[in-house]
């Protein structure tokens, strides 16, 4: 079964709440991932800001933003893999609003999205208790010809658990399995922990 069943199920489940929140928060710009392929080579001057960006090691958020603003002026631009590594570092610093904002800039630069960049954005919405917007990003996977993976779905399941929507998390987990996606250890841990901590009919 294709991913479209998952998308349809998620859309039905959250359509009403999403419509309510859309009146408060503007439609999210497109844009967790711990899995990256090795970066492609990039010809940039070996100055400190560029090197910190490429290594995604920063003193603080101001240092990270300075490196970002510096690197987007370089040509060629970094690959989406390198931007994902940078965004993931900001997630590690709990700068979720910043990641969402910077994703708009990355998109405006014409950088093509990947499963990882979209998964990072989903994770940020979930961490901000905006799981409905996380689900809205699933539609972008179809638009860009991408297919989410287990990490993407586990992130959404965790977002539901963070919001205390345990029944919804279990339902979505079942849809994920029915759709042919194989849960990993982290997926099971998220579900088990949620069931142990929450009161649910399951």
Automatic annotation (TrEMBL):
**Protein name, entry field:** Pentacotripeptide-repeat region of PRORP domain-containing protein
Pfam families, alphabetically? PPR, PPR_2
Listed Gene3D superfamilies: Tetratricopeptide repeat domain
Task: Indicate whether Lipid biosynthesis appears among the record's keywords.
Answer: no
PPR repeat positions: 149-183
Homology family = Belongs to the PPR family. P subfamily.
Enumerate the UniProt keywords alphabetically. Answer: Repeat
């Amino acid at each position: 079964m294709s991913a479209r069943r998952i998308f349809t199920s998620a859309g039905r489940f959250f359509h009403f709440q999403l419509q309510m929140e859309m009146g408060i928060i503007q439609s999210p710009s497109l844009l967790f991932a711990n899995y990256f392929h090795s970066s492609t080579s990039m010809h940039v001057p070996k100055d400190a800001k560029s090197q910190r960006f490429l290594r995604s090691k920063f003193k603080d958020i101001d240092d990270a933003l300075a490196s970002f603003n510096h690197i987007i002026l370089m040509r060629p631009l970094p690959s989406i893999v390198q931007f994902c590594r940078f965004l993931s570092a900001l997630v590690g610093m709990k700068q979720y609003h910043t990641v969402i904002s910077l994703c708009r800039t990355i998109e405006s630069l014409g950088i093509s999205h990947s499963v990882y960049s979209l998964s990072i954005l989903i994770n940020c919405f979930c961490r901000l208790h905006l799981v409905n917007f996380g689900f809205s990003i699933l539609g972008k996977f179809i638009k860009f010809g991408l297919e989410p993976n287990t990490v993407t779905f586990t992130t959404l399941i965790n977002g539901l658990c963070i919001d205390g929507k345990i029944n919804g998390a279990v339902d979505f987990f079942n849809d994920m399995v029915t759709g042919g996606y194989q849960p990993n250890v982290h997926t099971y841990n998220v579900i088990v922990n949620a069931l142990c901590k929450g009161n649910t009919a399951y």
